[in-house]
Amino acid sequence: MKLGLEGKVAVVTGASKGIGAAIARELAGEGCSLALCARGEEDLSVLAGEIRSSSTVDVFSSPADVTDADQVIRFRDEVVTHFEKVDILINNAGRSYPGNFDTLTDEDFMNDYNVKSLSHIRVSRAFLPALRECDSGRIVNINSIHGHHADARFFTSSVNRAASIAFARTLALALAPEGICVNSVNIGYVLTPQWSNVHQRVRPDMEADEFFADMGSREVPMGRMGRPEEVAGIVTFLASERASYMTGASIDVGGGQ
Ligand SMILES: NC(=O)c1ccc[n+]([C@@H]2O[C@H](COP(=O)([O-])OP(=O)(O)OC[C@H]3O[C@@H](n4cnc5c(N)ncnc54)[C@H](OP(=O)(O)O)[C@@H]3O)[C@@H](O)[C@H]2O)c1
Prior knowledge:
single chain; Rossmann fold; 7 strands; binds NADP nicotinamide-adenine-dinucleotide phosphate
């Protein structure tokens, strides 16, 4: 299947590790140039160098925190100056936020909302003028299955990802007349660096491989945790020309969860 991504420019937030890095690699493999951000510069530069050496696409990277409006605008300006256009925005940056209802404060909820939901709003707003100028703008927001399937062990995610999924759906309706497609991909348990915090918190006495295999077999209908590459394919499809009549969709990638 030809995805029609050659020559396009995609912005990927939170691109230095895990799912964001897998999405960046997959898009580059389809001939899509990349603008990558994360807070830490080192991992970002390593990934940008790896993609440059294994493909012919242009890769721009710059550290930026999606919870900081000034950094988002600065990143947007750098990207637009570098590429003079943006076709695709992947709102991926995020992290897990531990705590149960007895321990979480209002501030915790606000901080988590800032990372998981407001960042999608902020970054989408920043790149919308550029997306409006291209032929077929795409926004893909990485969310969580907990946004529609609450789990008290992932309390803030269950609350704030619900808002985030609603944002993607509402933005899709607002932008549909302009032909800009906005979709959500909701992740289940996908093995990335984010999960080492869970391992350390829950069962530091257990070997990591054993902990993740046990978790996958107990909690996921397919009996295992996912790999970042298993998310990157659907995200790349949604970013492509072949997804031209899909907007407002909310797609789970969770092994049946
Ligand atoms: N893995 C899962 O099972 C799972 C499940 C549900 C949802 N998700 C969501 O999927 C997305 C990717 O998760 P992942 O598992 O790949 O996580 P990860 O391995 O921890 O990677 C997160 C990426 O986001 C960046 N990042 C974090 N906070 C940021 C910020 N404020 N501004 C800019 N960049 C930031 C990180 O780099 P720096 O730390 O250097 O900034 C890193 O590149 C997240 O939104 C996550 O919540 C994942």
